[in-house]
Structure of N5-carboxyaminoimidazole ribonucleotide synthase:
Amino acid sequence: MSAQDRDTRVILPGATLGVLGGGQLGRMFAQTAQAMGYFTAVLDKDETSPAGLVSHHHIRSGYEDPQGLAELARLCAAVTTEFENVPAGSLNRLAESLPVSPAGSAVAIAQDRAAEKAHFVKCSVPCAPYAVIETPGQLAAVNDVLLPGIVKTARMGYDGKGQVRVTTREELNTAWEQLGRVPCVLEKMLPLALECSVIVARGRDGTIVNLPVQRNLHRDGILAVTEVYAGNLPATQVEKAIAAARSVAIGLDYVGVLCVEFFVLTDGMLVVNEIAPRPHNSGHYSQNACDVSQFELQVRCMTNLPLTQPRQHSPSIMLNLLGDLWFKNSSEARSPAWDQVLALPGCALHLYGKHDAKRARKMGHLNITGATPEAVRATALKAAAILGIEPF
Ligand code: ATP
Ligand code: MG
């Protein structure tokens, strides 16, 4: 069979699907694949990884271990990733023997903020003004218009980690030192009115579908609340965000689920922030509010099953459940009052099976659906009050 034939054939339930990474995204992928009748294999060296705990197979190895990768290839009919920092080389290596989506080349771009921004420019999708800082010369040459700004490490940042906000050149110099003089980008600090994201799924045949635009509230650099219903964003931004997300995916010749994050500025301009080559925290509401979830889209993409345009059937709000909530009333971790929360209508609890609650750790999320935006907001605010989440 040619690689082309191999990659385009439909992989039916009964086959084993593999995922690189054992976090919560891998867990929800595995659970969804299993619900559809697939077997699953997770590669993650953590014995107690959320996905490893629920998967038929758990290969306990690092992402670059040749034996682990060979075992994954032997077990699986296709492989995907749930973690954007899986070395692109490992994806490429797997792709020699089985279909892999997304491709190493696309993941490599999403892994590197400088390459990612160059891609946005190539697709004519506006992003924040920025400079790449890899050398003392580039640091010295930074234009003052980028200040105040945010220095972000080009690689390995997440949940606001690897970022320093700077106002002056002195602070910029110190920040680059603090970050270990690794390759960085400096982004101009923009006046944000709101943040939003769009999840697209693209098949190998070029079919592309999207979830509705998600409005996201971040607190301390971590997603806190996602609201998805008609009117959550001005209509012009909705259309622009969907069109931009689609062109970013098409420009990458992307196969799989891709999240594109945006800023809407105070003057109404839409600016792309970054992409994630996988399902995204802001897409979790789709599990309970849409006829196809982002994880089912991931399964359909990697198996060449048809992609139908998802339909959201209920207004929805997602509340992230960070470990902080376990410490609201005591210094020792205590489970929040799930019984009280689940007494509210339309609440679906998703917990990731993480044993230790830690501050800022994503322990789970609560999806809330309702008949109207007003109803879902009222319920979400009640749930937030019970859990000790600040109102929004
Ligand atoms: P994650 O992986 O959780 O999405 P991250 O660590 O990759 O986060 P970013 O998305 O780059 O970080 O930034 C985190 C948050 O910081 C953004 O959601 C936004 O609230 C704020 N932020 C980032 N860049 C800018 C900017 N140029 N201007 C204003 N605010 C910004
Ligand atoms: Mg982000």
Observations:
- Residues 129-188 form a domain with the Dna Ligase; domain 1 fold (CATH 3.30.1490.20).
- The mean pLDDT is 96.
- The CA atoms of residues 150 and 165 lie 4 Å apart.
- Residues 235-251 form the longest helix (17 residues).
